[in-house]
Design a protein that fits this description.
Helix content: 25-40%
Strand content: 25-35%
Shape: globular
Number of strands: 14
Number of domains: 1
Largest sheet: 8 strands, mixed
Structural class: alpha/beta
CATH topology: Rossmann fold
Length: about 280
């Protein structure tokens, strides 16, 4: 098993349990944690869920998303969130468990993944954890403006964010949905020389006033591939609160980059648009 920064993992090509419209899907127990289940889509480990403890975040990138949530609402107040991609529904359940009264709308492409989450991952939907199936961009267009405190981007086609979910036009629609102080938190996987990450950060800076990047130094230095979380908002980001959350977890393998560091990271990278978003080429470059 090849783990990418504690997140998505490449696995051996065992036969799958379920063939959905989009994936060869499987749910496997974690031998080291009896109450945990791992969601495998094709040859990638996409989600990790503890059936008895929704506050357990196994992957580093989900821990960083948890840090964002905790920094935004350290007092435990409820948040209204839109999740782009459901998978194992780890973050909606974390939000529900840690901030009762929160509202989550999950936009999941694959009805088969939703059925698997209900049947084998203990997902229970409700008035406060709702799911709409279909393409996230089409579904987001129907979400009311100024209605979300948080948008979490965690939709992948294989190892890449689908190109139409990476463009300025889509990010502009996310900005429409967010409240004035709302935050976008986007999970991105890339490897050296970080062509896609650089371009996506520049695209987010083209749409939002404030942008920051959270991730392992070895990934952000372009030495290895892995997951990073990019956050953006029209309002100042809770940087000090994030630093406290990361320090409390004693996670020494995370850096938080803003402003001048992002200028150096981005360089002369292009803004991605509906007319120009060569995501696969950028990942391979």
């Amino acid at each position: 098993m090849l783990v990418i920064s504690g997140g998505t993992a490449v696995l051996a090509g065992d036969p799958c349990d379920v063939e959905t419209a989009y994936f060869c899907a499987d749910v496997r127990a974690d031998p080291d944690r009896p109450t945990a289940r791992q969601l495998i889509l094709d040859d990638l480990r996409h989600a990790y869920v503890d059936l008895e403890d929704p506050t357990h975040l196994e992957f580093q990138y989900t821990q960083l998303l948890g840090d964002v949530i905790d920094a935004m609402a350290a007092d435990g107040r409820p948040l209204d969130a839109v999740h782009l991609g459901g998978g194992g529904f780890t973050m909606p359940r974390y939000l529900e468990a840690t901030r009762p009264g929160s509202d989550s709308l999950v936009l999941e492409l694959d009805p088969g993944v939703l059925a698997l989450a209900r049947d084998e991952l203990g997902l229970e939907t409700s008035d406060r954890l709702r799911v709409r199936t279909g393409d996230a961009r089409n579904q987001l267009a129907d979400v009311a403006g100024d209605s979300a405190d948080l948008v979490i981007g965690d939709a992948f086609g294989g190892r890449a964010v689908p190109y139409h979910l990476a463009t300025r036009e889509f990010l502009t629609d996310i900005a429409r949905v967010l409240r004035a102080d709302g935050v976008l938190a986007q999970n991105i996987i890339d490897g050296p020389p970080l062509g896609f990450l650089r371009a996506e950060v520049e695209t987010m800076r083209d749409v939002f006033e404030h942008v920051a990047v959270l991730g392992p130094p070895a990934v952000l230095d372009g030495r290895v591939g892995g997951n990073v979380v990019v956050i953006a908002s029209e309002a100042p980001l809770p940087i000090e609160e994030l630093q406290v959350q990361i320090a409390d977890r004693a996670d020494d393998d995370v850096v938080l980059s803003t402003a001048a560091e992002l200028d150096e990271l981005v360089g002369d990278s292009p803004v991605l648009t509906d007319d120009y978003a060569p995501v696969d080429q950028l990942l391979d470059s």
